[in-house]
Amino acid sequence: MQKRLILDSKLLDITISRLCQQLIENHDQFENTVILGLQPRGIFLAERIKSKLQSLLDTEILTGQLDTTFYRDDFRRRETPLKANATKIPFIIEGKNVVLIDDVLFTGRSVRAALDAMTAFGRPSKVELLVLVNRNYSRDLPVEPQYVGKHVNTMQSQKVLVELKEQGKKKDNIWLVDKQEK
Amino acid sequence: MPQLSTKHLLGIKDLNQEDIELIFETADNFKEVINRPIKKVPSLRDITIANVFFENSTRTKLSFELAEKRLSADVINFSSSNSSVKKGETLLDTVNNILAMKVDMVVMRHSSPGAPHFLAKKIDANIVNAGDGTHEHPTQALLDTYSIREKFGDVAGKKVAIIGDILHSRVALSNIFALQKMGAEVMVCGPNTLLPKYVDSLGVEVELDVRKALEWCDIANVLRIQLERQQIKYFPSLREYSLYYGINKALLDTLDKQITIMHPGPINRGVELNSDVADSEHSIILNQVENGVAIRMAVLYLLAAN
């Protein structure tokens, strides 16, 4: 029974700062770029990145929330259904560059669902993916992120547990745990 | 995630408060979906739904069909007026034949109370009651209660008067159950002959004077006189009913407060409700219709998930 810490508060801050710098390299002043956090935990990350970018660039960063529940391909195949969350995209994504943000990239199925969900709002000119934790060698679909906080080698039997202050936790901690323990 | 406690939606009576809250929260998300440029999600793309209507319907049938299509389900429609029911086929045979074509869910309206409950015992598919005679109309009660929640933020503690033909109304019965489960106070109001004998067992206030009912309530849900279900005369004339129970602006203006007006449709304008009330800014009748699609999407989605 192992529980290994992948990122703590301090490391998470450093990682987010680096990711923001990488985003600025590619998107300059974000004139034509918006960010979309994926429900449920990607939205917290998107908010942190937004406020970091805004302090670095001194400009408004358009940020939305995207819920993929109704687009998942495992609906009715899971033991328990997923609870839907809010989708809030108060701007037009047609012709924009979109950066999708999620906490953990595992099989790639959420991202596939997100791409589907996003096209219901328009046709972006370019879509990129930013994830905090990339679980290597675990993809079911050909999905690769452009921006990665941390690469982790994991086994199927393990799970990445994300605890953020926004969820009411005392500290930010991201763990790699055995599923049985969870 | 929480799941519905039932496999079918036969009546509000079978639901608990958590079920209703889950349906409302899911409907919030679907309401956002149906206001998008592309109003469709692929959730039920592998599901086939039969709308089986043994009784006339405009709103409910269209609303269900739209909800099903917005969820990407395959839809087949059946109405008894142009079917083999006229040739003497039984209800169970009709539905079994439809199910033999690999249908996963049945949305049924029938003039006999308990018809969907009977089917639920006999067949495997999920059943949604779209109105069974004078018994229940669960999705209507859900969308009515949801519309109150949307307008006021909360249902608990609100005073709702259901006014009109309570005796023949499945909307009234389902609404009473739903509102009580969500903590609202309910009053029924109508002429004595149109109140059911068992009204005392429902735990609602009873009022014969429509003016007093309006003074009491925050929300008035006005029902249609269901002449098609009345084999005998329950009141002398529609004109007299309208004089005593019709709601018009002049009557509402004499109250010292604003009340919200609801109606499940179809409205008989000039009988139970005057146009100056039905079309006023205090009426949420068209919001009810819009919410109906979101509520039905939520119900179908949650039943399919189980």
From TrEMBL, chain A:
Q: Where is the Phosphoribosyltransferase domain?
A: 7-166
Class of this enzyme? transferase
**Record keywords, A-Z:** Glycosyltransferase, Transferase
Transmembrane segment boundaries: none
**Which CDD domains does the record associate with it?**
PRTases_typeI (cd06223)
Which domain of life does the protein's organism represent?
Answer: Bacteria
**InterPro entries named in the record:** PRTase-like, PRTase_dom, PyrR_bifunctional
**ATP-binding is among the record's keywords:** no
Check the record and name the Gene3D superfamilies matching this protein.
3.40.50.2020
**What EC number(s) are associated with this protein in UniProt?**
2.4.2.9
Q: Name one GO molecular function term.
A: uracil phosphoribosyltransferase activity
Q: What is this protein called?
A: Bifunctional pyr operon transcriptional regulator/uracil phosphoribosyltransferase PyrR
Record the organism.
Splendidivirga corallicola
Q: What is the lineage of its organism?
A: Bacteria, Pseudomonadati, Bacteroidota, Cytophagia, Cytophagales
Automatic annotation (TrEMBL), chain B:
Q: List ligand-binding residues for carbamoyl phosphate.
A: 59-60, 109, 137, 140, 265-266
What are the protein's UniProt keywords?
Pyrimidine biosynthesis, Transferase
In short, the EC number is 2.1.3.2
Subunit-level organization: Heterododecamer (2C3:3R2) of six catalytic PyrB chains organized as two trimers (C3), and six regulatory PyrI chains organized as three dimers (R2).
**Domain Aspartate/ornithine carbamoyltransferase carbamoyl-P binding stretches:** 7-150
Tell me the name of the encoding gene: pyrB
Q: Name one GO molecular function term.
A: aspartate carbamoyltransferase activity
Which named protein is this? Aspartate carbamoyltransferase
Q: What does this protein do?
A: Catalyzes the condensation of carbamoyl phosphate and aspartate to form carbamoyl aspartate and inorganic phosphate, the committed step in the de novo pyrimidine nucleotide biosynthesis pathway.
Which species is this UniProt entry from? Splendidivirga corallicola
**According to its UniProt record, in which pathway does this protein act?**
Pyrimidine metabolism; UMP biosynthesis via de novo pathway; (S)-dihydroorotate from bicarbonate: step 2/3
Family recorded in the similarity comment: Belongs to the aspartate/ornithine carbamoyltransferase superfamily. ATCase family.
Kindly report, in one word, the top-level EC class recorded for this enzyme. Answer: transferase
According to its UniProt record, what is one Pfam family this protein matches?
A: OTCace_N
Source taxonomy: Bacteria, Pseudomonadati, Bacteroidota, Cytophagia, Cytophagales
Please list the residue ranges annotated as the Aspartate/ornithine carbamoyltransferase Asp/Orn-binding domain.
157-303
Residues annotated to bind L-aspartate: 87, 170, 224
> Catalytic activity annotated for this protein?
carbamoyl phosphate + L-aspartate = N-carbamoyl-L-aspartate + phosphate + H(+)
